Amino acid sequence: MITAAIIAAHVAALVAWPILLVGVINRVKARWAGRRGPPLWQLGFDLWRLLRKDVVRSTTSTAVFAIAPWIVLGSALAASLVVPLAGPAPLGFRFDFLLLIYLWGLGRLALMLGALDTGSPFEGMGASREATFGALLEPALVLVLIALAAATHGASLAEALTTRPDDPQAAPVWIAAIVALLVVIQVEGARMPVDDPTTHLELTMIHEVMILDHSGPDLAAVQAGAAVKLATACALVANLINPVPAAAGRLAVAGGLLAASVAVALVIGAVEATVARLRLRAVPQYILIAVVASLVAVLATRWRGLA
Amino acid sequence: MLAIPVLLAGVVLTTALPGRTVKFAAAVGSQALAAGLVLWTVVPVLAGRPAVLDHTYAWSYPFEAIRIHVDALAAFFLAWSLPLTLLGTIYAHGYLARSFDEGRNPGPHFALLNLVALSFVIVYTVQNALVFLLGWETAAVSAWLLVIWDYRSQKIRFAGFNYLVSTHIGLFVLVAAFMLMHSRTQSMDFASFATVLGQPGELRDAVFVLLALAFALKAAFFPMHTWLPRAHAAAPAHVSALMSGVIHKAGLFGLLRFLLYLGRPDEWMGWAILVFGLLSALFGVLSTAAQRDLKRLLGYSSTENVGIAAVGFGLGCLGLTWQQPALVVAGFGGGVFHLFNHALFKCLLFYAAGAIYRATHSVDLERLGGLARSMPWTAALFLIGGLAIAGLPPLNGFWSEFLVIGGLAGGGAPSALGNVALAVAAALLGFVGATSALAVTRAFGMAFLGTPRDPKLRPADPPPSMRGVMVAQAVGVLAVGLVPTLGLALVQPVVAQFTAGVADAPTTASRLTDVQHGVWIAVAIGAATVGVGVALARRVRRHVTWGCGYTVATPRLQYTATSFSALFNRLFEVVLPSRQRGSLPKDVFPTKHGNLEIDHADPVEGRMFEVLAQNEEMAVKVSQRVPDRPRLSLGLGLVVLVALVVLALGGRA
């Protein structure tokens, strides 16, 4: 019964939450610029519109191009299972964070192959950037999740994210982890200052340029996949800053988690409204912040005797 | 044991019988029979029953007693080495068909493949150092002769010679290690070597270093990998596949064999293996991301993958030192599983590269493109192998990488610094995984996707015999990927040998049960979304690729392999320097066509040749200073002779 409720809550969160978070980010950006901004559910309307359209595919493309968007969506959905989005995570086991990382990797690879399948130089350029930045980010992601697991003795990712050791010495681990994960959101979610989701110039894009040729339901799948991934990444941080303790009951924790997710989206939106996109050559240095922060987190766990 | 005469008979038959088909049938028949015999011996061992084969033959000096014994380690290696060699032989028949049509005699080639299979039986079962070396040498020389199939090309002869020299340097080191141990035990039997290796001390340290060097050279660890990319680029595809996937696994076998004798290794040994493994993985994967020759690329990826396996072995050794059975299981389990997985997907990738070469006579990524349309089978099979080599679920590479990285992430070192080092190693392996995903995207994307870059090429899928071999390999990759317990059934007995002393050691399978459920759920979700996607895309229209307003795009405008990885390679320019040739267009309105070619030569090899050249120059200079007078030369010669005699006498006293 409880398991069914958890799964139902997770599925509901997967449908509604990514759309809303993207809406929140866009609303913050609009307000910051003095505009009213689109409705919070705009992405939902967009997806619905796209789903009813026909598909146009490039004459050079093969089956890879047709399947790739759905692998992107499927892998993002599957990866979200180990993260508490609204209420407990439906799945949890030892080292499940590796499954999350590798599933994200699968989604990224599918997206890049779809882009290369069109033979467009622009899309090849986007894939090249995505591959490079993704590879550089990987050590940070692995290290930070190891640090959290070690600090909390949590067997699964969900436990590591939600357990709060009473030890005040754990604070440096948390701070470093939050810093690293914020960069992870920006890189994996293709947000500013790494990538500009609203730019009009193909030469400066990363994520958007890879999906230039997708259309109709295919495009909907890619956008939904990206939103799910963004929501999952936001939930990683939201779980860490969730103010409600586990003792307060499941519903209260879930409420706190949702509020924390919105707070993370607000931060992302505020950063996006105030910061310009980095030059591409500077992005590796920016990612280095995440790597260093995650290394600090690991060192903090070990030297403070938390592990 | 009967397998040896069967394979030898195969050798004789392939060379003696007339006719291509008959020779092929003799080779395949003898290998199939031998593989059957070997499996008949090996399967009970893997199932946990005591070895059927444990026999000691009395022999005269210098061999002494020759013990033949199939333990779990030997059984594991034999179980897949012979069947995979058989697949390679079948592939050879299709791959080399055109050369045979031109009148090349297929006999020696098939005979050499039989000899390779024979060397596996010897190396993996024999417990006598001298006979072991015989088998080792059989493998090395047959591999060399297989590499130089196209011996008319000077480049290929050079690659072969390079390999021959490298492998023999390794052999000398190995002989030195055996001689050191023999000097202590007066016996050539491995069991007696165990008494040397079991006791900590200087002798054990020295022997360990020598053995590790010899086996690392065989398995192409960084920085002893320089022979590998050349040999792989020169050899026929199936020979590259067998060398990378099967023959050079003998190096890792040797390492494991002697690690078993170590008992409880010193801590530095575990760290040394781990660090060397990590360096190999990092260097291998960075080179993989930069190569434009598909077969060189796959060669470097072998260095990467033996590195990952070695990180596992290092972790396992540390687990033995620290007496942490969980680490032993994760390390050796992951490492051994990974080398098995590597044999499956690397052979597949080399076969696919061979299919491309056969169709286009090129494996240059800058000339290929759009092959997925003309070679759909090869494209699909290459993609399966590529996803597996990138370690992505649900394919087999994921499971072994999961075991190794999970083992590193779990900690368990007695010191804080040790735990941090393990965590950093895990993170670096994560980087290796993501970079190999980049390399796979690049290789597959440039060769198979987009539009053809060279309109002169007329590619087509290979004939059914080659395709069948690739399908068989791909089925292995998929089966082990979806049901990893299939592979673990082979791996667990080997791990059990390392945890023999521990009462309640965990099993490799127990570490993967939960993950397996997770991956199955992910596969179900993925299949469902793809199903939805196919259902939704009922009406599909076709249109040219959106050119962002530019309407005269040509295939030459596509991103190339070099440009795809340029951003990434520039970051690692220090490790992997590039060479640029050509002239860029000048001025605002350029009048001349520009061109630019970037390629990445092996930095280790470059440095090696530099040092050698410097030494040669030095020798020349020194010899020039010696005055050209016969009397002086004779006098000097006499001095050297006397010195040598004194040294020899002193050494004896």
Give a description of the structure.
The complex is a heterodimer of chains A (307) and B (653). With 307 residues, chain A is mainly alpha-helical. Chain A has one domain. Chain A has helices at 2-32, 42-51, 63-80, 96-116, 121-152, 157-162, 171-188, 207-210, 216-241, 250-274, 283-303; one strand spanning 55-58. In chain A, helix 5 packs parallel to helix 11 (283-303). Chain A is globular, with a radius of gyration of 19 Å. The model of chain A has no long low-confidence stretch (mean pLDDT 88). Chain B has 653 residues and is mainly alpha-helical. Chain B has a domain at 603-652. Chain B has helices at 3-16, 20-46, 72-95, 97-101, 106-125, 129-147, 154-185, 190-198, 202-218, 227-234, 237-247, 249-262, 267-290, 294-322, 325-360, 371-374, 376-389, 396-409, 416-448, 464-482, 485-498, 508-536, 561-571, 603-625, 630-652, and strands at 54-57, 66-69, 540-543, 579-583, 595-599. In chain B, helix 5 runs antiparallel to helix 6 (129-147), helix 7 (154-185) runs antiparallel to helix 9 (202-218) and helix 17 packs antiparallel against helix 19. The longest helix of chain B is centred in the middle third of the chain and has 36 residues, at 325-360. Chain B is globular, with a radius of gyration of 26 Å. Strand 1 of chain A pairs parallel with strand 3 of chain B, so a sheet runs across the interface.
List its traits.
heterodimer; A: 307 residues; mainly alpha; 11 helices; B: 653 residues; two-stranded antiparallel ribbon; 5 strands; 3% strand
